[in-house]
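Extended Data, panel c. Modelled sequence:
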Amino acid sequence: MEDDEIRDVVRRLARSHASGGQVIARAAIMAEGADATEVIAWIIAHGGQPEAGAASGPSSGLHRRRINDEAASAKRPPVRYVVPASAFAPPPAPSGDDADPPTPTG
C-alpha cells in the first residue's frame, strides 16, 4: 500500500482521543485486511504509540493470577494505538534542489 492509501485507511478507522490526536483499535486494523502489518508499521513510523494498558484488576480473589499476570500481558499485542494529529498532515512539498524546475512559458 502507498503512504497516502494507508493515511486514508487510518483516518477512516480512527476516532478522536483525549490527547488531541486519534486512536485506532487494533481489531479495526486487522479487520481491514491483509495489509494490517503495513498499517501498524505506518502508525509507529508516524509517531503512533500503543495505548497504555488499563490499571490492574483485583489484587486478590479467584482470577487474580490470570488478571495480574504481567508476563502474559506483555506478550499480548496492544488493543489500541494513539496516533498524533501530525501524522495526518500531508507530506511537505519538495523544495530547493528537489523541486521540479519551472517550465518556460511563452
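Strands lie at 15-16, 22-25, 49-50, 80-83. This feature is highlighted in the accompanying rendering.
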